[in-house]
Amino acid sequence: MSESHAKLGFLRSYVFSTDHKVIGIQYGITALLFLFFGLCLMMMMRWQLAYPGEAIPIIGGLLGETLVDDGAMLPSFYNSLGAMHGTIMVFMGIVPLAVGAFGNYIVPLQIGAPDMAFPRLNMASYQAFVIGGLVMLSSFFLPGGAASSGWTSYAPLSVTATTGQTFWLIGMIFLIASSLLGAINFIVTIIHLRAEGLTFFRLPFFIWSQLVTAFLLLLAFPPLQVAAIFQLMDRLADTSFFMPTGLVSGGDPVAAVGGGSPLLWQHLFWFLAHPEVYVLILPGMGIVAEVIANNSRKPLWGYRPMVYSLLFLGFMSFCVWAHHMYMTGMGTTMSTFFQITTMIISIPSVIILTCLVISLWGASIRFPVPMLFALAFLPMFGIGGLTGLPLGLAAPDAHFHDTYYVIGHFHYVVAPGTIFAMFAGIYHWYPKVTGRQMNVPLGKLHFWLSFVFMNGIFMPMMFEGMAGVSRRLFDPTVYEIGAAVHGLTTMSSWSAWLLALSQIPFIINFFMSMRKKERAEENPWQATTLEWATSTPPPHGNFVEPPVVYSGPYEYSVPGASSDFSPQFIKQES
Amino acid sequence: MNDPQYGWWLPPDVSVHGADIDFMINAIHWFMLALFIFWGGFIVYCLIRFRARPGHVAIYRDIEAKWNRWLEIGVAVAETVVLVVFAMPVWAKIKDDLPLAPEQDAMVVRVVAEQFKWLFHYPGRDGTFGKTGPEFYADDNPAGLDFDDEAGWDDITVRGFHFPVDRPVIARLTAKDVIHSFKIPVMRITQDVVPGMEITIWFQAKETGRFQVGCAQLCGLGHYEMKANLVIESKEDFQKWLDEEHEALGLDE
User: Fold this and answer.
1) Which of A73, A406, A530, B225 would you call most buried, defined as having the most Cβ atoms within 10 angstroms of its Cβ?
2) A399/B contact by beta carbon, under 8 A
3) Would the pLDDT of A214 be above 90?
4) What are phi and psi of A131, to 5 degrees?
5) Option in A149, A160, A379 nearest B43 (CB)
């Protein structure tokens, strides 16, 4: 660790750093900014949905005339907002936060490693992410606006769309490259750099979740990378990977050679995008498991079944992609296969959730802010998972497909699910990163307001979908059904704006707490895992002495021990 | 504008196959609600009973729980039942049992999707569709009929969808430009329409009424406006409508 003592300049320390902690913080800040940006896009969409055709207040006059007409949103802008909200939240917000930020910062610390296995690869991964993000953002300034074919970019619509789609594809190629570099790094780090004594079944559940996530990214993203390049060729080089013969647009034949298949894109896309769903949720589950074990002051119930379920979940996530495509004209043989695999994959999720819930039995539960978010994750993810059941079966899907029910379902998984888990992680590890504790009353205010308004947004969507309102409609009231349930739409919109306001206590808390004089304790949560074995915040190189692990990850309330936690890194007197 | 027939739960169902779907949807939601209340109740109970307080110590030893095994097995069994008893047979009936036999007297219609309109193409009195192809598309020939083919002279192409009640309808769906999705909520139908493919579906209505056909797959700027009127009418009214459309063609003169 000799180079760790050399004095590095500002650029090498904070911008082009190879230290996993700095990269983790860079990822975290960038991803939080993208999440906030994605939230802003959504708030504009919610205005159009609640008050179709009315001028957008405050910012309506500031937007260019290609986007708004007299301050009222145009359909092209609405479609761009929809596509970019999805893309930004998934690929530039949640994944970089869950994997890039939490993974980078916590994984080496929790396994007792001095850094990631490939620090320069790690830096390259962050840089590719920033380039991809900037390409995506710049597309808003193109003539014709940003990509507008949905985050799914179904061909042929996407192939014939405006230049924004080309930028979307180039941006995706960078973002995918970033994830692949990160995934390799996590796999090698977790397998090779574990501290002495840290066997696989002594790994915290969070590490397991990151390991499985890394494999998903590594195996699922290349097909989309290929598909993105194919689509780019279709757009720029007049190939016809996804363009069938005989297309006519507006009465004129489309200049494509033909012979391609639009469904090929969907298969390649969903072959990534279903495992991607688990990429979004597994790190969240890992954080929730850490926080629940710590605050219930007892070992996780069923740690091994949870790990086996996680591995099985990772494997099965590659076998269910076509359940997004039941309505494409798929035959009964195919749909039977995918209905069966979809029902099977629900079982390991049920097991993990059940284990987390049973872990509360016989516990001694504390309620700090991270625990509130972790506990709220359980029923919220529960709703998201349960509503997947009717969608996973082809016959009910004939009613629910592409309705607001689908939007409600996956947002329950990702928004009050994953994002709550992310908040739990931020409140839990903030003292590790900054050496300061976050303010508790502000944290509780943030939690309760977010909890109420998250449900206020997504529960009405379930009923809209039940009524049969289609998604991605610029103005759902043009349909009789949409007009009949318009009150639900308005309720969602107001909840969304109030949810955004509810983040103000968090933003204040996040920045003000850094400036606190009072330092946090070295191990403020009385936790057992390795990230608390070093000083807070950790020095360059993480550990002064390489830590040695003597026990499992969650040795809380061991009978006869001197305190209610027995850290992994301290040898217990027997 | 509020339409009393639409509300917070499933819309009315006028299809023959929809009852099975609705039964599944309702049953699954009861099952979900039961699970959610059980789990939620358990969590709340734990949070109260096992809250940290002076003198209360967590139990280190694994609690012996057998009931969770039963819960997980119960969920698996319930899913298997739903899958094998309902989902597969219902879906197979909807997809595979095309009413092709002459005695079933199915009506055949072509549905052509384009940005941002639906077109409904009826074979006319001869019961035969004229030859069509993308090379014939024109503003006054949206169905792409080859006018050299006599079979197409009496074909009817309209923007509103009419079909008779109590008679199976076979719809052959094609798209000209991008992917659309043929959605009729009251008929419990969603079917993507993919360019380059012809997809055949069938359905049968059990009640008459006036509803809407919509597009459920993002297809561009006008996607939100891509709807058509749907008239499900008695056999007599449907025949009368067909006759009127034939007269409008001017072939009888």
Assistant:
1) A530
2) yes
3) yes
4) -60, -50
5) A379
Query: Mutation test of the interface with chain A: which of B17, B212, B224, choosing the one with the most A Cβ atoms within 10 A?
Result: B224
- The count of residues in chain A is 574
Of A254, A297, A481, the CB nearest to B11: A481
Task: Determine the pLDDT at residue B62.
Answer: 75
CB contact under 8 A, A299 and B179: no
The minimum CA-CA distance between A94 and chain B, rounded to whole Å, is 24
Total residue count of chain B as it appears in this document: 253
Parse chain A into domains and list their residue ranges: 10-245+256-532
**Is A479 part of the contact surface with chain B (CB cutoff 8 Å)?**
yes
A401/B190 touch (CB, cutoff 8 Å), yes or no: yes
| The pLDDT of residue B181 | 97
Q: Where in chain B is the domain with CATH 2.60.40.420?
A: 102-249
Of A339, A338, A409, which Cα lies nearest the Cα of B87?
A: A339
Q: Give A-chain residues touching B68 at CB under 8 angstroms.
A: 354, 358
- Where helices occur in A297-439 by DSSP H, the ranges are 303-316, 332-358, 369-386, 388-392, 394-400, 404-413, 420-434
Comparing CB atoms, the residue among A258, A339, A387 nearest residue B87 is A339
Has residue A3 got a pLDDT over 50?
no
What count of CB pairs under 8 Å joins A to B? 295
A168 touches chain B (CB under 8 A): no
* Structure token digits, residue B124: 């006319």
Q: Give the pLDDT of residue A378.
A: 97
Q: Which chain A residues are closer than 8 Å to B197 by Cβ?
A: 244, 263, 329
Phi, psi at B132, each rounded to 5°: -130, 160
Nearest Cα residue in chain B from A256: B177
Q: Which of A299, A365, A559 has the CB atom closest to B47's CB atom?
A: A365
| Per-residue model confidence as pLDDT tens digits over B79-134 | 999 899 999 999 998 888 899 888 889 999 999 999 999 999 999 888 999 999 88
Ranges of chain B with pLDDT below 70: 1-4, 252-253
Which residues, listed in sequence order, are joined to residue B199 by a DSSP beta bridge?
Answer: B173
Contact between B11 and A468 using a beta-carbon 8 Å cutoff: yes
Q: What is the pLDDT of residue B2?
A: 44
Torsion angle of C-alpha atoms A177, A179, A180, A184, degrees rounded to 10:
140
Q: Give the architecture (CATH level 2) of A10-245+256-532.
A: Up-down Bundle (1.20)
Could you read off the pLDDT of A118-176 as tens digits, one per residue? 999 999 999 999 999 999 999 999 988 999 999 999 999 999 999 999 999 999 999 99
Return the pLDDT at A536.
Answer: 87
| Class for the domain spanning B102-249 | mainly beta
CB distance A358–B68 less than 8 Å? yes
- CB-based burial, A293-326: b 16+ in 10 Å, e otherwise: bbbbbbbbbbbebbbebbebbbebbebbbbbbbb
Q: Using a CB-CB distance cutoff of 8 angstroms, which residues of chain B are in contact with residue A562?
A: none
Most B CBs within 10 Å, among A76, A361, A558, to test the B interface: A361
Distance CA A137, CA A133 (A): 6
Please give the Cα distance from B204 to B182 (Å, whole number).
15
Q: What is the largest CA-CA distance in chain A?
A: 84
Using the predicted structure, report yes or no on whether residue A574 has a pLDDT greater than 80: no
> For residue B1, what pLDDT is reported?
39
Q: What is the pLDDT of residue A12?
A: 79
